[in-house]
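Per reviewer request, we include the raw input and output of the structure prediction for the construct analysed in the revised manuscript.
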Amino acid sequence: ASSLLDGLTQLFSPILQLFTIPAETAPILFLRPFSGSGALAAATDIMETYGADSLIGRTAAVMLGSTETTFYVLTVYLAGVKHIEGKQMLIAALFADLVGFIMASVTQKLSYRMRAEISKKIIGDEEVITCRPADLLEGEFEKFKKENIYVTLKL
C-alpha cells in the first residue's frame, strides 16, 4: 500500500503544486475520502516526520478537520433515505473535499508567513521558546518547598 501511495504522490505531485498543496500531504488526500483512521495514521506519520508545528504538519491537521470520509457518509446517508441516485451527491462531496484540501493549504501558507512576521516583530532577535515556559524555571520548586517548610514551622 505504501508503494501505491508513493506512486500516486509522484504522479499527482505536479497537480498538487498547481493547487499549492504540499506533496507530502498527498496520502491524506487519497485516504481521507475512504478512511478516517487511515488518513489519521498518514497525518500522524507526517507530523512525526516534519513536526506538528511545521507548515506541512499544520496543513495536514487542517486538512483532517476540513474534510470528511466522503464514501462512508454517503453510504450511511443513501442507505438511510433509501435514495438510489447518488452520483450528483458524490461529485459534490468530492468537490467539497478538494476545496477543503486546497483551502487548508492556502490558509496555512498565509498564516505561517504572517506568524513568522508577527513573531519577529514581537520577540525581535530573542530565542523562540519551543517548550513549556515552566520547564525553563530551574530549581524554583525546590526553593519554594524550603521556603514553605520554613514558614510552616515558624507558625
